[in-house]
Amino acid sequence: LLHRIEDDWQLTEPFLLSLSNSQSVISRFVVESDKREKLIKSATDLFVKYCDSWCHANVPASSRENFCVTLMTSALANTGVLDSVDPGDNINNPIVSVISTGIRFETFAAYILLHFIGHRNIAPSVSVWKWALASISRSTGQPSQNIALAALTRLAYTSAVIKLDLTVRAALAVVLDPLLDSSSWELLLRGISQCHHKVSDDGTSAQWSHGIDSILKASDFLKTVLPSRLTSIETERSVFSNKFRKNNAGIYFSLVQAGFVFSSPSQELAVQAVSKLFSVAGSLPSSSEGEASSNNTTCAELFAGILRALRDSASTVEYGVPLQKCFLDFFFKCTDKVSVEYAGQWAEALLFAYLGSPIGVDKSGLGDLLTTQLIEGFRNIVSGSAGDSTGGESDESFAKQGKILMFVRSLLLADN
Questions:
Q1: In this structure, are residues 342 and 407 in contact, taking their beta carbons and an 8 Å threshold?
Q2: C-alpha angle with apex 23: 22 to 29, nearest 5 degrees?
């Protein structure tokens, strides 16, 4: 039956929309909770499996306009985020919340949108970018926030490898250039921080129904879009901290490569942009240990993604001393007073940023300030002079030496 639906595009759209709408129908008319959950899980499993199949299908040119625009517009309207669902609208239109259709309905609509991104026959519109940015920034704690993060991961990467329409690029530049609008970055970084897995004080984490949980797991898998050259077999799994997300770092890497973060190759403007981003990231509010940990991870991911992009051979911005000093200052500002556990996330950041490069050597063959200072700290430890400069053999001194050793080990792994 599914093969028949796949081959007939007049059946594809109503089938996919019917599966999406089935969640609200089941919730409304099936009273018994156990039966409702079983029905929802069955519908979700079919929906996830079919969406995955459709993502790789070839959409005939004659069907792209009606099928894709209709489905995308319907999904955008059902996310409960945007006030405008015109696939060609401008990202500067005000973002307001419309009447919510329920978490399940919004989650399914978001999952449909996710599958438009990266499809070889479909170019995501400005509205899809607008939805992803708005959902990450405002859908606090909702499943759609995590799906939108997966969408932004795919949008950022595809924009780095595929030339965007000039209208889309111009609209996005307004909100993604930190020199023009740092407030949007504050909301975005706060939202990304909230997407990190959190465990409450009693040791539990958020539990979703079978249907939503299946979609979240599938969405997490769809975040994996980074090319293999950005990781390695040895570092595919976390080495120092499992909280650091390479895919999140990849968002910033891709946005820099796509030319959104830096509006020109001017090193002076790049310094201003990086300084503003680091200032915003370092000022993220927190009211609990979990939020502080997530903010620390977000800072490390931002640091790693932008640094890797600047050190990449494709970078049009020179990674000179002024920029190096920005990264040096931010790194030690974030790591000097943190615990060894928090420092593990920064060791992961170093591993991501320097992977494949000789220690302390960038694309020009010159060393940079950060690795030079870390290696110098390691030499002081080996020579026995580190204790004298950090106040003797105190717990603080041991913690500081332990962090330096971990950072240098990260550089060694990156150089492997």
A1: no
A2: 85
CA distances from 236 to 229, 244, 355, 367 (A): 11, 12, 11, 26
- The rounded mean pLDDT for the chain is 76
300-325 tens-digit pLDDT: 999 999 999 888 766 777 778 888 99
Nearest to 189 by CA among 272, 294, 332, 107: 294
* Distance between CA atoms of residues 413 and 416, nearest Å: 5
pTM to 2 decimal places: 0.81
Alpha helices in 162-209 (DSSP H): 166-176, 182-194
* Three-state secondary structure readout of the chain: CHHHHHHCHHHHHHHHHHHHHHHHHHHHHCCCHHHHHHHHHHHHHHHHHHHHHHHCCCCCHHHHHHHHHHHHHHHHHHCCCCCCCCCCCCCCCCCCCCCCCCHHHHHHHHHHHHCCCCCCCCCCCHHHHHHHHHHHHHCCCCHHHHHHHHHHHHHHHHHHHCCCCHHHHHHHHHHHCCCCCHHHHHHHHHHHHHCCCCCCCCCCCCCCCHHHHHHHHHHHHCCCCCCHHHCCCCCCCCCCCCCCCHHHHHHHHHHHHCCCCCCCCCHHHHHHHHHHHHHHHHCCCCCCHHHHHHHHHHHHHHHHHHHHHHHCCCCCCCCCHHHHHHHHHHHHHHHCCCCHHHHHHHHHHHHHHHCCCCCCCCCCCCCCHHHHHHHHHHHHHHHCCHHHHCCCCCHHHHHHHHHHHHHHHHHHHHCC
Measured CA to CA, the distance from residue 279 to residue 102 in angstroms comes to 36
pLDDT-derived band at 101 (thresholds 50, 70, 90) equals low
- Measured CA to CA, the distance from residue 319 to residue 369 in angstroms comes to 11
Spatial CA neighbour of 102 closest among 189, 248, 209: 209
